UniProtKB/TrEMBL annotation:
CDD domains noted in UniProt: ABC_NrtD_SsuB_transporters
UniProt cross-references to InterPro entries, sorted A to Z: AAA+_ATPase, ABC_transporter-like_ATP-bd, ABC_transporter_ATP-bind, P-loop_NTPase
Ranges of residues in domain ABC transporter: 2-229
Domain of life: Archaea
Protein name (database record): ABC transporter ATP-binding protein
PROSITE patterns referenced in this protein's UniProt entry, alphabetically: ABC_TRANSPORTER_2 (PS50893)
SUPFAM superfamilies: P-loop containing nucleoside triphosphate hydrolases
Keywords, in A-Z order: ATP-binding, Nucleotide-binding, Transport
A GO term for molecular function: ATP binding
Pfam family, one: ABC_tran
Amino acid sequence: MIRTDDLTVSFGETRALDGVDLRVRDGEFVTILGPSGCGKTTLLRAIGGLQSPTAGDVRVDGRPPAAAQTAGDLGFVFQNHTLLPWKSALGNVTFLRRLAGKDPAPEAARDLLATMGLAGYEDARPAALSGGMNQRVSIARALHLGADVLLMDEPFGELDELTREEMGIAVRRVWQREDRTIVFVTHSVPEAVLLADRCFVMCGPPGRIVRAVDVELPRPRDETVLESAPFHRTVATVRTVLSEGADAIQ
Ligand SMILES: Nc1ncnc2c1ncn2[C@@H]1O[C@H](COP(=O)(O)OP(=O)(O)OP(=O)(O)O)[C@@H](O)[C@H]1O
């Protein structure tokens, strides 16, 4: 379980997070949604141990995030993928597992690249791939690491809408097969609903959680979900919560 208790993060005069109490259950796929500057990235970085709390506490499976990271239980995907330029797509995907002392499992890495729509590009170096393709390589790399908890910050930022939907569904498929916990930050309401079991809506600054919206859609999900009435209903609910912002905090 991931839990934050009364988590507050300030940067000088700016209070980026203000008393955030978050609970994410093991095996859950949650999204964090909110307007620009409301503290989504700061929250994700605090969960990952990359940002120290000014006050309050963060625990990942009962441990401080740094301990979870040292144990290889935390994986990250950020907007700016940091692939090694001299390694192929396949080499980049297997590299982190090798570094963590795990079996590099190249066949599974090939499968993941194919799931990400990159079959045939295994030997290509980052310079020969588009930004969106490199983003998909970095997602495959994070999934391949096999960490229990995966933190993803706008990982589809460079992708067009159709590819975003395809990648979202692919990530959910891997998540469901391998029983991970995923915390996924996004600006996009449809994406937040398509992917999540629960969607945390934030407002700010100072960043606070307005509400957790349960997403009751079928599993596994595919593109047809996007046309369904429950999907549109949930999107409408989330939009209302977003527009009410701080007024919706009970
Ligand atoms: N390192 C930093 N130094 C100073 N202020 C910061 C720093 N990081 C974030 N902030 C401020 O904290 C607030 C929250 O920023 P954060 O990046 O977490 O928001 P966000 O919701 O992820 O935004 P976006 O959706 O635009 O990426 C903003 O006011 C931002 O300017």
